Amino acid sequence: MAGSDEFTKEFLTESREGLDRLDNDLVALETDPHDIGRLDSAFRALHTIKGSAGFLDFPLVGEIAHAGEAILQRLRSGQLSISSSISDLLFQVLDAIRSLLATIESTGKEGDDTFAPLKEDLRCIGIGEVPAAATSSRKPDTQVLDLASISQEHKTRDETIIEPFPEDQVEAGNRISAASRDVTERSLASDVPTDATVDVPSTGSDVTAKHEPLPSVSAETCNPAVTDEPRTPPLVAPTTDAHPESRSPVLPATVTLAPAPAAAPRSVPEPVAFSDSPGRESTDSSFVLPRGSSGDSGGKSGAASLVRVDVQLLDRLMNLVGELVLARNQIVEISSYRADSMLVSPVQRLNVLTSELQEGVLKTRMQQIGVIWQRYPRMVRDFARQTGKEVSLELIGAETELDKSLVEAIADPLIHLIRNAIDHGIEKPQLRKIKGKPREGRITLKASHESGQVQIEITDNGAGLDIDKIRQKAIQRGLISAEESAILSESDLHDSIFLPGFSTADQISNLSGRGVGMDVVKTNIERIGGTIEIDSRKDIGTTFRLTVPLTLAIIPALIVTCHGQRFAIPRSSVMEMLSLHGGQDRRIEHLHDTPVLRLRDEVLSIVSLSQQLRMSDASFDAGADVKVMVLKTGSRQFALIVDEIGNSEEIVVKPFGRILEGMSEYSGATIMGDGSLALILDVRGIAQRAGLFAVDRPLLQSATYSTESAETQVTEVESWLIADLCPRRRIAVPLAGVIHLEQVPAAKVEFSDGQFVIQYRGEIVPLLDASRFLAMSEADNESKMMDQAKTLSLVVYSVNGRMLGLVVQSVVDIIEWTAATLIQARPGPIRGTTVMLGRVTDVVDVARLVQAASVRFPMATQADPFQTTD
Amino acid sequence: MTSRKLCTFHLDNIYLGVDVNRVQEVAKTDHVTGVPLADPRIAGLINLRGQIVTAVNLRECLKRPADPTARKPLSLVVRYDGTIVSILVDRMGDVLTVDDRLFLPAPDAVDHDVAKFITGAYRLPQALLLVLDPDGIVAHVTAAHMGRSSR
Fold first, then answer.
1. Least C-beta-crowded within 10 Å: which of A79, A160, B46, B86?
2. Cβ(A712)–Cβ(A736) under 8 Å?
3. Which chain B residues have a beta carbon less than 8 Å from that of A662?
4. Rounded to a whole number, what is the distance in Å from the CA of B17 to chain A's nearest CA?
């Protein structure tokens, strides 16, 4: 049994490859029915499957493969010509074999499914299980097909679908089939019993009688179609019933109909494309395959120099080489301490050999991306049909190589993107025509190597992303607020389709639009260290640009230390590294609970690694010297404080075992030169853990602190400082007026001229307790300034050139927002109320607040020369 | 088939055993690299001849107090579901052939949480030998990290 298992496994692998090739051959044949090479290749592939199935005793596989072969045989001999119904049937044959193979793989047997509907369809065109039957039922089959094709032709012309066609056309059809019958009779006379060929078209009863000795086949299934109900397209009807979901009756598809074998039954006839316009548009889906990428008829030629290797063996080799690299590193390290000349040269040699070996093994794992692209032509064809669209697929750069695990990792995201492109991107043919585009949409997949990475572009020439719809949906689903949507740029809005729970599909279709997907696509791409970008223009099309690394196994990383433990951070996510000295370096603004780093024009959230990993509870000390890594994940950046920043090293990534796989903070571990382990940080996971992208907002850009007057005309997008006054009261003030944010002990507060003041930068600055003045409805009316033990959060604000200390409970955030969307404006310190970051927020006019609270700015004074100020 | 072979070991003052067929090897642990944020029942990762293996803190699983005086634990490398996991134990015992007639299903007296990892016990003349269920341990600590990948 063991031996036969081995054969079965091989049979399964080979048959699947054959089926994939067949898919492409058939799709190509739909475009070019005269490609004899393709036809031969398809025929051979099916023949091989049939042969192996017979040898291993899988009769059903053999039977179905035989039926498919019979169809192909007729296509070869010109007795049949490719039509959409024929190719559908062939695809069904392939699918049936596929599902049988799956059953065989899991159970070892063919299973109970007899594929009766498929066999029925096959019989309907006269291909039965017994070769003899197939031969003798050829004649009616020819006629049926002609009728089917003609009916399709008229459908296309009339733009009506599944409508009985007028009498005169039926007659026309009959005339043609009659003509063809004559010829077929003559050409087949030798191998068909005479009585079976006579009188076929006239009455059903005749045929039934005459066909008695044959499998009931044509009598039952075809006759009603041919004679009793000549208005129904004979072939389409039964199949549609059998698999209503598997095909759409709406086929704007055009059918290439061979002008009846009459003209030249044995030679390949010139096809006549019935469609309103000539050229490419005559096919519903056409595919441009790169040379040699698939379906090449001479596929066997290179077989002798190729070996099939078990992936597990490759993985093991890969692991061993990884070990060897580590051992090599250790030896190199040791030898560097010893001045032993005997060692130097063998160590060097070992060094070089190991590197070469590693490179070689990495190469064995490289796979052409075309491997997964092979499935796409068929997929696109099917999707296009289901959605009633006309789509051609172009594949460029199929020979681009990347690591096998990566090829597999991007397969599903790519399928998803292609589906989306067909479902949402490409317009219906009618609409495209109105827009002045060719009826047929085009999807291009392009892969290329780009500075040590692989870039894959999926481009469609469809409608482009609908910004207004995205904005509307994102708000509707509560993914962003109306205010946020107003300030987001076009590309940020594009990015919001990656948010979980997003879908713009008006209707949930079979293909996409279930609201899951794009976020998963993004997550999957990012998991392998890749990125995804969107470029979309209305009515021109959309491009998704994926950038993925060549291999996952070895990546350059920076080693950092935190609490004595080493961590690796992939270099691809490190933007820059800073060493900040405490004291004079004021780039870290300590805003209560939200420390931020001001880096040039940007304000970055800053988090401490030891705190995030709960290695220490101490909140970080802004006064101390710190090492900071500026990291990016997606298009967002943040700063991470670590203890030490070490070397950059090439590390061998080892996945965690299954137990720790669920941890999003790490992407694996690696073995260092000294044999110890270092955890590899997942930058995105850390950012999420820190709650940095809870709203997935874009980075705060150009939120510059200004000492300019607050008298700014609010029309455009502005930056706002958000602060809490008490737990349920939140305000926003224009950031432009904010001079500084300070934490001051309440003990420093002094009293002067009937108001609280503080000495700040050599000035006497009046304090305004915003909590007390604005939070009137709240019970908490006791001013914090009286409590000497407390620390005050102070927003130092510029009012008409003078400084004011605005006391708040805490500073929450800085956001960009358009003031135009205020709910209502009214006189008084509160200019209006709106919702920011999901909370009701009062927009405060500080100048008016100063008036209302009758704050008096002290006369300009000389600062106390004997007192140092803060 | 009324007997089975157990690989026995000690943890604290408990006498435990694992089906000998599940044990790949026993290794010394030089260094266990801690994994911050992981479940406390995970001791960390060990480098087993170049393979990174998760080490389970059995002490924590069985709710035994940490022993500051303990020497370096031994790593009992157990196979499960096509991969391996290391269980940190204090000291190895013998491989015993035990008579199934002496088997008792998990005693009720054992703390409920602990019972999840113990399939039962053999009443041996010298001591009670608890049978550890490695799959139960793996399932529980794995579950503790699931769902953490979402925000």
1. A160
2. yes
3. 142, 145-149
4. 22
Alpha-carbon gap: B85 to the closest alpha carbon of chain A (Å): 8
How many CB pairs below 8 A link A and B? Answer: 88
Please report where in the chains the tokens 């596989």 appear, as a residue. A61
Query: Do the beta carbons of residue A660 and residue A666 sit within 8 Å?
Result: yes
Beta-carbon contacts of A677 under 8 Å, excluding residues fewer than 6 positions away, are A669, A670, A671, B31, B33, B45, B46, B47, B52
**Segment A267-277, tens digit of pLDDT:** 444 443 333 33
Q: Of A123 and B88, which is predicted with more confidence?
A: B88
Q: Which pLDDT value is given to residue B45?
A: 94
Residues from chain B that touch A663, judged by Cβ atoms under 8 A, are 35, 37-38, 145, 148-149
- Is the confidence at residue A674, as pLDDT, over 80? no
pLDDT tops 80 at residue A182: no
Q: How far apart are CA B111 and CA A731, in angstroms?
A: 53
- H/E element holding A864? none
The answer on pLDDT for A21 being more than 90 is no
Which pair of tokens denotes residue A125?
């065109």
Angle at A813 between CA A811 and CA A819, to 5 degrees: 110
Count of CB atoms within 10 A of residue A245's CB?
Answer: 7
Q: Which residues contact A773 (CB under 8 A, 6 or more apart)?
A: A849, A852, A853
Dist. CA A22–CA A45, nearest whole Å: 7
pLDDT tops 50 at residue A392: yes
Min Cα distance B61 → chain A (Å) is 14
C-alpha to C-alpha distance for A554 and A649, rounded to whole angstroms: 10
Tell me the residue type at A684.
Answer: R
Per-residue model confidence (pLDDT) at position A304: 61
Ordered DSSP codes for A152-205: HHHHHHHT--S-PPPHHHHHHHHHHHHHHHHHHHHHHGGGS-HHHHTTTTT-HH
Are the CB atoms for A784 and A691 separated by under 8 Å?
A: no
> How many whole angstroms separate alpha carbon A572 and alpha carbon A528?
12
Angle CA(A258)–CA(A260)–CA(A265) in degrees, nearest 5?
A: 95
> Given pLDDT bands bounded at 50, 70 and 90, which one contains residue A153?
very low
Chain B residue with the nearest C-alpha to that of A616: B36
Could you read off the pLDDT of A484-504 as tens digits, one per residue? 777 777 777 777 777 766 655
Entry field: residues in chain A: 870
Nearest chain B residue to A675 by CA distance is: B47
| Minimum CA–CA partner of A665 in chain B | B149
Q: What is the C-alpha to C-alpha distance for residues A493 and A482, in angstroms, rounded to an integer?
A: 12
- Residue A694: closest C-alpha in chain B: B151
Q: Which residues in chain B touch residue A328, judged by CB atoms under 8 angstroms apart?
A: none
Report whether B15 contacts A632 (CB < 8 A).
Answer: no
Distance CA A394, CA A458 (A): 10
A125 Cβ contact partners less than 8 Å away, ≥ 6 residues apart: A71, A80, A86, A89, A141, A144, A145, A235
Phi then psi dihedrals of residue A743, to 5 deg: -110, 115
Residues in chain B within 8 Å Cβ distance of A565: 33-34, 36
Its pTM stands at: 0.47
Q: H-helix or E-strand containing A611?
A: helix A609-612
**β partners of residue B95:** B7
The CA-CA-CA angle for residues A231, A233, A238, to 5°, reads 120
SS3 A217: helix
Angle of CA points A439, A440, A442, to nearest 5°: 140
CB neighbours of residue A767 within 10 Å: 23
Cβ <8 Å between B33 and A678: yes
CA distances from A820 to A108, A140, A492, A623, A832 (A): 69, 74, 20, 40, 10
Distance separating the N- and C-terminal Cα atoms of chain B: 50
Contact B131, B121 (CB under 8 A): yes
What DSSP line would sit under A202-222, residue for residue? T-HHHHHHHTTTS-THIIIII
